[in-house]
Amino acid sequence: MRSSDLLDLIVIGAGASGLFLSLLAARRGLSVTVLEHGPATGRKLRASGGGRCNLTNLAAGPEDYFSDNPHFCRSALARFTPAEALAAFAEFGLAFEEKAPGQMFCVQGARRLAEALEAACREAGARIVLNCPVRAVTGPAPFRVETGTGIFEAPRLAVACGGPSWPNLGASDLAFRLARQFGLDVVEPRPALVPLVLSGGQARLCRDLAGLSLADARVSCGGRSFLGGLLFTHRGLSGPAVLEASCLWRPGLEVAVDFLPGRDLEDLLRQGRGEFRGLTKTFLRRLLPDRLVAALAPPGAAERPLAQLSNAELAETARAFQNFTATPSDTEGLAKAEVTAGGVDTRDISSKTMECRKIPGLFFLGEALDVTGRLGGFNLQWAWSSAAAAAASL
Ligand SMILES: Cc1cc2nc3c(=O)[nH]c(=O)nc-3n(C[C@H](O)[C@H](O)[C@H](O)COP(=O)(O)OP(=O)(O)OC[C@H]3O[C@@H](n4cnc5c(N)ncnc54)[C@H](O)[C@@H]3O)c2cc1C
Hints:
Elements: E1 9-12, H1 16-27, E2 32-35, H2 43-47, E3 54-57, E4 65-66, H3 74-79, H4 82-90, E5 96-100, E6 103-106, H5 110-124, E7 127-129, E8 134-138, E9 143-147, E10 150-154, E11 156-159, H6 174-181, E12 186-192, E13 196-197, H7 200-209, E14 213-221, E15 224-232, E16 236-238, H8 240-246, E17 255-258, H9 265-275, H10 280-285, H11 290-296, H12 299-302, H13 311-322, E18 324-326, E19 330-331, E20 339-344, E21 362-364, E22 372-373, H14 378-392
Helix pairs in contact: 1-5, 1-14, 9-13
The chain binds flavin-adenine dinucleotide.
């Protein structure tokens, strides 16, 4: 089969950014075809936010993104803001709620949001071709895309097929292969927003504490700290603060955890030494979960009356809970990573239009680019903002 010769734009990937670009482009009167290798559109979108879709974050700004080129995302985020994203989805009759500060979820759920976006694309005239594996792409313009269901040609090609994380929802590394084919650099792709794996004695500690969660911990890695929940797993550490720290983790780097953020445990112990008559572990249990106290408190101090501890023992006890350090041996890998960090090097891409500087008509969007958001709606906001930037230039 040979597709229409009159296409204005081919989009590879019917996920968040690909559908949003197709909608905006089709509404501008462009003839758009979206090629999706999976059996359905927006599979990550449907699974997002645990089925509730955290579609944006009201506070989204460049500092919420990790990239080798940290200023790249600034222009697109400023030109298509979280408020604009909410307004665009409200048009489909969807409502939103703020479940945590700034984090906006879809009241009707992720599936309904994805269905509404797909329906709007079709209504605007975009053609979506499912079960359409891309076999080869040639260019520069006109771009020619050979697929399992036909050949498509257009003067513009948007690569919106995301990163390879969470492959059971259809993810692939096609975007990176295409980037390299067209001579672009790819910043080393790696799992991010992913649990960390510990080894040796610390792995045993995690196994013993598996299932224990703390509502607030501060996790530091690579010069930044993240505040949020922490969960011990059978293999290591997870929970929102750890997932965010994983975006900066590289093999060999240490992670430090403060299990009592915002308090000075050494100071509290010193005050307690003057007033409290019981054992140190009993005092600690007033501040921290019993299981954590049993696992981390220095045994010499824990089993003695707090009143008997020396200044050095107070400091050592405080350090055990406020500067717990570990050097993860690995992450849980792409299979369990909510996003892929790294990706198409943005130095070759216009920050205003997402178009490749060296190859006019070739665009990269969303997670395929070396722009990775924190947890909390930032990655989908990047998908919408990068798509809107490309659409505005068409
Ligand atoms: C379980 C889970 C939950 C998440 N929850 C949230 C959340 O609540 N909030 C948030 O901000 N972010 C969330 N994310 C991240 C967010 O979903 C992604 O960052 C975002 O979807 C990226 O958009 P994209 O358009 O770049 O790629 P995607 O949405 O991944 O779309 C890529 C599309 O391209 C298709 N494709 C891939 N390879 C090919 C190929 N070779 N040929 C043709 N088509 C191809 C895929 O099937 C897919 O449809 C979550 C991710 C996961 C995995």
